User: Fold these one by one.
Assistant:
Number 1:
Amino acid sequence: MKNAFSKKLVLWSLVWFSVITLSLPTIIVVGASFTAGDIIQFPPEGFSLRWYQKLWELEGFKQALGRTVYVSVICTLLALPVGTLAAIALARYRFCFANLIQVYLMLPFTIPLVVSGISMMIFFGEIRILGKLWPVGVALCLINIPFMIWSVTASINALDPELENASYNCGAPPVQTFFSVTLPSVMPGIITGALLMFILAFNEFLVSLFLTDSRTVTLPVQIYNSIRSVITPDLAAVSVLYIIIALVAIWLLDRLVGLEIFLRSK
Amino acid sequence: MTRKPIFLTSRRTVLKTGAAAAGMLAMPAILKAQDKPGEIIVRAWGGAWGDALREGVADPFTAATGINVRFDFTEDNEIKPKIWSAVDQGRVPPIHVNWDTTTNATISALRGVTVDLSDLSNLDGLLPLAKPAGLDGYPLVNTYAYVYVCAYRKEAFPDGPPKSWNVLIDPKFKGRIALYDDGIGFNPIAVLAGGGTLADIPDNMEPGYAFYRKVRDNNPLLGEDPDFTSWFQNGEIDVACTISVNAREAKQNGIDVEWTIPEEGCKVDTDGLWVPRGLPANEEHWAKEFVNFALSRDAQQKWCSLLGLPPVYPGLEPPADLVGDPAYPTTEADFARLISIPSPILVENQPIWFSRFNEIFQG
Amino acid sequence: MLLPGATRREFMKREQENRLPLSWKLLDGMERVVAFVWPSRFRHAVGWWFLLPALALVGILLIGLGYMVQYSLHELDISTYRLRADYSLANFATFLERPVYMRVLVRTLLASVIVTGVTMVLAFPYAYQLVRVRSAAMRKFLLIALFLPFFIGQVVRAYGWLIILGREGLVNGILGQFGIAPLNLLFNYPSVVFGLIQYMLPFAVLLIIPAVAAISEDVELASEGLGANWWATFRHVLLPMARPGLVGAGIVVFTLTMTDFAMPEIMGGGKNDFFASAIYDGFFQLSNPGLGAALSIILVVVGSVIVSGAFFLAGAASLKARGGG
């Protein structure tokens, strides 16, 4: 009994510390967005929706939002096959220089985003695709692709290879085995990864900063640029928009596949 | 008594003439006028700065020409490599007009990415300040001057404004002082505050570095324009070296901020406009028209009085709240209290000062 | 009605095929296509084919690094603000000459170690409780608490902390009620580290969950049945079994912290820059792409060496072990 109690106490204290740390800025920002005053503060000064109204009227806000969705979708669609196949390859096949491949695939993380942004700006400019929107989606996929690979790999590591062998032994050819056994088993990893890719693309500002101009600016870049000029509560209002989108995404996910899918390994 | 009505009439007249002038300029190039672009993109600073450009220049320009003006709020340092790589790769640059610090604009001019503006009609009669120093012709044109003042919270200084920049090393304000994160606007002042003279700049900056080390020990905050505003708002700091525009904006927003020119003086600098190379001919033409428009009497009056800065157009009245303000220099005597470093010296030495500043403060 | 044997078999086969679901037929078709374009003697290369798209995608960065190497070997000519044509190692010499760069690098790496350590200590119990908690409502709450902050990005979250920890912020306001003088909670090294831990936590938990979920609860029960207390079970059973997930999450958190730009910029008050800021300053503030590129290469090399080291030490396990399978 004592054992179970101390376990509960320690684990739950850590978890609650995390929950509070994770949630506090969100709550504060939501509260601050309803301020009637001119500056971001908590507790807010009075209650009003004026900053939401201002946000909605903001020049180019809606287009920027649309572009952000567009690049995030491209990023996710590209990541799905690329990341899944790579993860399966890494987990199921033996390579010479396996560690080298791992280090290579970590380049998107080991290269600072500032550097990735500049070098892609130069490269995309050289091949004359800078200024279009879809390369931004490709770039966002590239800089976050390790997340996709990692989440799928984690699921595959949990998959018993004997299952696949059993499938072969029962006479299932390779493609069928892939679609009927391998893929469903790693689905939690694929869904986690796809969600991560979408969210990260939706929030990314540093690389996007170099690959967009004022005709193709995305929401995070617009937010970042406006933060650097004047910090007004419309920033908090944008954050609330992000929170609403998050809630919708979580709700959708829960309805479609069930949130529990994140907690399953097989 | 008569000043106001006269001013109003003349303003209206100028507006008409301005529109007519824009039309006339377009006349000789009927072909160009026909391919009027739907919009031009101007890189600008946000907040009060962008609002002033919108109201003072962009909106009247649209009214006169029918061309929309879109603002690009990319940071000045970040637009630089974007334009440079576009020009190097023979692509169309992402903006039509860059509103830039004179030092950064000069660097772009040295790199050869700017269009010559010598043929603009409104250049005649501007103050000598408009002409970029150390460059041939007008690869850029300066539009106004500004001062890096000593801004302070009145509440923290009951005995009146700080008299010397030594306030930054006063232990009383430990952790409650702020500078720009690269020391811009303060580098030459630090030399004077540290016991050096103007003659020491740029060859002997050591007194300035010594002063910086003392400032560092007083635990300053380092940031950019918006940081100063929020730090003053949130009561994080009592005194800062920042551009008067930011302090004035904070004050207009009801924050208890004042500014002063301490005995060592303050750095005065200029901003300018330039047009990148590589634009299609018609777009380049209208980008230059925008710059020309920004130099017209009416635009200068409105834009600069919104900013609270002295324009390069001669003989304009300062805004009512800045009459006699040392941060709005108009006379010889005003400028005598300020320290101006020629841009060639800044271009060559500012990167060195930035890295030394960084070295000291990241220690 | 008696059909000859062969015809009858033929008929039955056709009947059978007609009854097959459409998806099966599609699958059979794909099987044939794959077998045709990809004879079995090529099968040994299938891994490489799976890997190819990812290798190609990351190849874009390799091209970018090529530019950086090229830039880093040329010095800036301050009279034209272009890089000189002749090759030199001057930019790398600058890194060695200015102690500030080494200091910033050490500060960055130290923060990465601390952030990784603390994040893992917080993330593992979170992932564990998420997987094991009995109440469905609690599970959902924990998941939502994890996802929500995740969606609002680093910049905005940092601003939330500015409101909370500022001089006249929430915490100091509460302390003030008890007569405690305002504390400087912001714009120092610990606040940057704290902000980064908060930022990294969801990443880490999400990457650890699958590894924890793969561990059967029976294993724990067995361990406890054999007399191990929960701490021993954690240390000797759970953590080793979850190692692939932990190593992965650790590497992700470490590298993301090491290359982070926004958090030190916003919460560091300008005096706690990370190496990414030094790179940024090289490119933008000093307009010196040569120096910026040299610093980039140094950080990429340091990061890659550390990542390779981690793979070398834990890699065999992280790649080949089957988690809890």
Note: Chain A touches chain C through 118 residues (CB under 8 Å).
Number 2:
Amino acid sequence: MNDSPLTTLFIYFATLSLFAMGGANSAIPEMHRVAVGTMHWMTDRQFGDMFAISQLSPGPNVIIVTLIGYHVAGIAGGAVATIAMCGPTCFLAFLVAGVWDRFKDAPWRIAIQAGLVPVSLGLIAASAFVLARVADSNIYAAAITAATAVMAFATRINPLWLFAVGGLLGLSGWL
Amino acid sequence: MSHLDPPLLAQTERPSLGELFKAFLIVSISGFGGALPWARRMIVDQRRWMTAEEFNEAFALAQFLPGPNLVNFSVVFGLRFGGPAGAAIALIGLMGPPLIIVMILAVLYAQFGEIEILGRILKGITAAAAGLLIAVTVKMAAPLFLKRWNSAPVIALLAFFCVAIMAFPLPWVFVVLAPVSVGLAWFKR
């Protein structure tokens, strides 16, 4: 029985990833339960800070697992946790996508695809709603959200400019 | 045709592995508060590698596999356009840069432990990111709602209502709604 922290990290995140329906954000409460409660890897405060750092970093939100792994076992821990979280599901995506493209014209595939799209859209809309509710703690933040939504929909402006405006207003302490 | 209406046919030209890597790298480092809007902007609006509907379909597939959505999407997209090497390249482009950035942030945090200023900036960026996600949701929903009436918009609104308003656990919403939706799609073929 190998109980090195790297093995523990790998087994935990590989298992978690296969149950993480709906992406990394929906798995965060479960990560919190294990990292703070069951395994005592970190305090509540440290977990909260890691969540904030993962949000500060660009890229997929799943990057929080890198921080947890790094905290537990250094750079190797960060790498192992990330590979465990992404590896098995990427392999699954690889297999499914291959089958999916091969049966492009099969009736069952067309029906599944047509059926999944509206559910997927509803879930994306729900995450937009949840993100806006968390971010818009006051009227100014809500105004930034509304202005960005209109600009991003109606113009070709690079959204990074809108992010820069939001960031500056945040820095100024208005939000 | 305005820029709000993506072309009916995507370009048939396949991106090279280098282009794939660059595209996912840009999506990744732009993606504060979620990378989905950036992926759609890159693939549908700018490079025109997929139509709006093809993107919706590929993303829906990625979303219903377990694990991080956009990570799955990079594999689905990379495999379709560049085979196994494409899948690996897209995944590395998406995950590599944030991995390095987040490690640097972690070290800085361990040194200084002070992320209050960054946190304030982030608050503003998150408010903007929410707006960007709303805009992309509307763009993605357009093909669904502009079609002749069918059950799809009802399913989409129901999924939204269950998760956003009722806060039902996502797997349950999926397990109940997806088969219903697929069944409806099957019978109206």
Note: Residues 1-7 of chain B have pLDDT under 50 and may be disordered.
Number 3:
Amino acid sequence: MTEADHSELKMLPLDALHRELGAKMVPFSGFEMPIQYEDGIIAEHLWTRSRAGLFDVSHMGQLEVRGKDAAKALEAHMPGDFIGLKEGRLRYSMLLDDNGGILDDLMVTRRADHFYIVVNGAMKKADIAHLTRHLPASIEVKERADLALLALQGPKAAAVLERLGAEVGLITFMRGSEVRVRGVEMWISRSGYTGEDGFEISLPVKNAAGLARLLLKDKDVKPVGLGARDSLRMEAGLPLYGHDLSRMSTPIEAGLTFAVSKRRKMEGGFAGFARIDRQIKEGTKVRRVGLKIDGRLPAREGAGVFAGERKTGVLTSGGHAPSVGGPIAMAFVASEDAGDGTKLQVEVRGKLLDATVVPMPFVPHNYVR
Amino acid sequence: MSVYYTEDHEWVSVEGDTGIVGITDYAQKQLGDVVFVELPDVGKVLDQGAEAAVVESVKAASEVYAPVSGEVMEANEALQDDPAIVNASPEENGWFVKLSLSDKSQLDELMDQAAYKAFVKTL
């Protein structure tokens, strides 16, 4: 989003705690959010990869979709198999327009009597409007603004939660469950945006600060801001909506073909299927790739990508990757230049930096399946 | 030796006709972790206010301007291998360039340490 007038910005439920912890607050997704705490982005990033980082992601939208044949209704707008999604399972998906353009990327969980959907904070209003307009009247779309969302990410995350008495051992990657922690009911899923093992915890706003303080008392937990969230997700090869993903690209161009479930590929019946089907069969003109950039100078979103004299694309994300120890980027480039190992160049302030197309993730995922 | 400061949070430490330029502790805290510093070539003539260096933090690229005019006599090569020196020691080891000053009267426009400290308090 563009930087709005600060007076229009909303405060996170944990705002006071962030400030108490020495956070530097910046506008993001319509909220004042902590970009970093006192340790700084690199330290927070490395801490998350070795211990456990606590993120406040309450800016994200938490929606409930319920009603007769809700799975089928959702399938008309997303390429995932929701009819076949079992209770307590999560599926990464995207809301698509009629041309197959990505309106948002999101996480869908089937719960006993509804679907729980977590969407990007900046797209929340648009998503709700889109779903409300396009789903049958019998389907209810409800925003749960009364809930906060925390993420505890890193190899120590499970042990930390278990020390609090939260039974999360049986919750494996991309599963979620209702869990009672110190007398408070919360929804905990094993998922996240860092490439590490970790959990996302949805709980009433009124209980969020209490849980956060409890977690922060653990020697393995430190608060981690948006800055490290961005470098962690980049290293994990995970796209960020509004940067790497937009209405201008399809899931196939964005390298997210895995999110088009097998049955949906064969049966179609979702917005943009004609174009997506053609792209699966015939390929795309452009593709999202990962780039490892030589040297230390970070290249950022918007930098041009060249194959010799020819401009082949543009960076959609880029920066210093603390665990890689140098600059990495994501770019959309012409498919002919998208093969692993292709040597390209990235322009930063008139200088051309050598770069190589590499498979993502840049840092191996550590999911507990 | 006297040290002068700008409102853009650069400092220049002057001895004779030589000025060493860097950024203040306040500036490095605002930038966060520095991961790259782009320095000018030796021999480059910088006008007051011209870009003297570019500091890349994890978050963003920020320009550092020459507080005064001068010719670059030396650039701090140590920053190439370890840009984090700018965070650890912004007002000593993390200097950027050594300038041969061409117009010392420009120093009169800058703040002394007490004035800069007072200025930072207003931010």
Note: Residues 113-121 of chain B form the longest helix (9 residues).
Number 4:
Amino acid sequence: MFSRSRILSALTALALVPASLAADDAIAGMKKGTPDLKAAGALAFGPDGVLFIADAPNATIHAVATGDTKSAGVKSISIPKIDELVGGLAGTTGSDIIINDLKVNPVSGNVYLSTASGKGPGAKAMIVKIGADGKASEVSLKDVMHASVRLANAGKTAAITSMAYHKGDLYVAGLTTEAWASNLKMIPFPFSEASTKGTGVEIYHGAHGAYETKSPVQTFMAYEIAGQTHLLASYVCTPLVKFPVAELKKSDKVRGTTIAELGNRNRPLDIIAFKKDGKDYALISNSARGVMKVSLDGVEKIESITARVNGTAGLKYDSIKELDGTSQLDKLNETMAVVIRKTDKGTSLETVTLP
Amino acid sequence: MSRLLSFAFALTSIAVVSAAPTANIVDGKIVITGLDFTKLYVVVAEGSEADIAARPAMVGDWSDDKHGGTFTPKFPLKPGIKYRIVSDTEKLEVSIPRPKPGMLPRVNTVLPTAADLPENILRFYVQFSASMPRGDAYKYVEVFKKDGTKVEQPFLELDNELWNEDQTRLTLLIDPGRIKKEVKPRLDLGPVFMDQGNYTLVVSGKWSTSDGRTLGKDFSKPIRVKPAISEGIDPKTWKLSSPVKLNDAVRIAFGRPIDHPLMMRCLTVIDSNGREVAGRGEEMLVGSGWSYFPKEPWKPGEYRVHVDSLIEDVCGNRIGQPFEIDLLKPMSKEKPKDMELAFTVPNR
């Protein structure tokens, strides 16, 4: 900021681009204003730099046109203490910061974080962007083009565990602090009056002998199998399950096919898909097992795991020891990922080569 | 001529230096006076000089004064944190003193109230007397067996800890992988609770409160494990007792422990005109019953207890829908529906 030839530098919030610069389709139905964000949880990117932000206390998903629609040339980032960097922007120390999610804007390659400054009920939500130079800046949500959708029947204080956008639909997985009404919602985007509630789907996965239950989805991604969009979802109780999106649109109860059992003492955190040497893989970060590289070879043919499982079963996987301590993971491009890792030196944000 | 000019310049410099620069926090803003500069920013000044140098400038707005400026931070300044104002020539530091510590939060209770709980219990609630910080819950709540050994990973550890809005109540879910039959976590680690076993759920006194103190005392809840409840809820089997007197409660015995917050939220009393009767619901029979006292005495007539379909027992079983569905048994594909239980307050 210049004034009387002096520079008063507060890390200037990124001005989000006015409506005219963003693609018309993505911002259809958006209005200029300041979304009222109580918390910034799960993130997802839609078309043309549209950022979806889950605001669980308000049971609302905000779609914000970031205007970040050109390649930023992000190649290599290494930030040794990402929590201190985020804390510095908000005026506090790293120990007072919670990083809720990390997503790469697929259009620009810039890295976005949803964070909370403070750990008490008065914590402030902040979206942070990290560019090619490894510098962090706050993404101001003041007077931006945005649209919001309120989740119907969210119940008491929802937790939104994961979101993904694919071909015109936003998928939202979550659960509540009280009732076990965990389900997956599909919300067409651009948001419209008719779609505000989203379709709720209860997802069952059989495969546990004669039993089946619904269970919260921890993380998931959209993936094309034999020309059909599927969701590959990792549940809190460790199986990896596939189900066709077409089924979700037909019924409010869907049975998924368990395609891998990833073992216990473990909690899936993030999942991405990538190609290496012509083969498809999923990379899944876990609370206990570091990062797993799962071969998706034959995923279209795999039979549901229905028998008792000793050890692990289904699709084959390798553990990537070098990525131990990964709490956040997203794909940067076909050969690189961005991770947040906790090591003895602190919590770092870095780009890594896909294994 | 050139000498004169430089003299004038020197004078100006002296005049500026003589007004000692100050920085103060006024109404949450940092006000800087007596300082000329070409650049000015505020940074968190905690840790080593290298730590400080690595931090970005704080986000906020500047307004420009004649010899200084006012910084309005975007996020509120935090008590106890040092802030450094950096100009070309000066480094000034300010901070808001920490407030005197208030009452130490304590654990008021752990729900369900009962000590006798079914093997397949799904959910516990820890109720605190004041807000707690998020982020550490799974470190400080543990379950021990009778012999003092720890139950490994009893809870479903979610990224987003499940707190209520003011962060006074934490929801803990037993890992469903340990409840559901034939899934790996249960096959490998066994269920969290074994029928007929004795356990203690402990909220550690080492848990840090928001101001960096600790809770101080452990809170222990004894658990005696009873057989699993694997059937859906059927409100038709509940025993409803109509009020005997006009200021008495209507009471329901559920025959099994019902989730406390859902009991409080899902049961309402409706009069014959379809209006909700004001009053107060209470848990009874250590969580296996509910009573509702009307605010005004009952008027003789017909009433209904409305049961919202969201209601669950402590094992996550819903109306007509068990938590875990056995494919070998016929299963209703219908979703739980709201139900009503009629009662009459007689003329007397």
Note: The helical segments of chain A are 82-90, 245-250.
